[in-house]
Amino acid sequence: MTKAKSQSPNSNTPKKKNTALKVAGGVLAGAAAGAIAGILMAPDSGKNTRKKIADKSKKVTADVKSKVTEIKGNLAKKKDQLFKKKIK
């Protein structure tokens, strides 16, 4: 007698999505902390260090906004595609 392979009905649960978001957030936070630590450890004047931190913060903010906008666009396209499939 063979056992039927059971697929988990929860394969795409919000819990897994939340875990992926937490991992991505952790990676981004770690990268930001590393960049700031590197800037703070570098021998430079306070004025230059503050400028570097401000510049880096602006760049990271712009990158994150760009990525979020891209993801929102992709999700909107997928939603539209799924909606069109349900109508047919």
Assign a percent range to the helix content.
Answer: over 70%
Shape: elongated
Oligomer: single chain
Rg, Å, rounded: 22 Å
Unreliable residue runs: 4-10
Distance between the termini: 41 Å
The proportion of strand residues reads under 5%
Compute the number of helices.
2
Mean pLDDT: 77
> What number of structural domains do the residues give?
1
How many strands in all?
A: 0
Structural class determined from secondary elements: mainly alpha
Helix and strand pattern = HH
| Main sheet properties | none
Keywords:
single chain, 88 residues, mainly alpha, 2 helices, 80% helix, 0% strand, elongated
In short:
This protein has 88 residues and is an all-alpha fold.
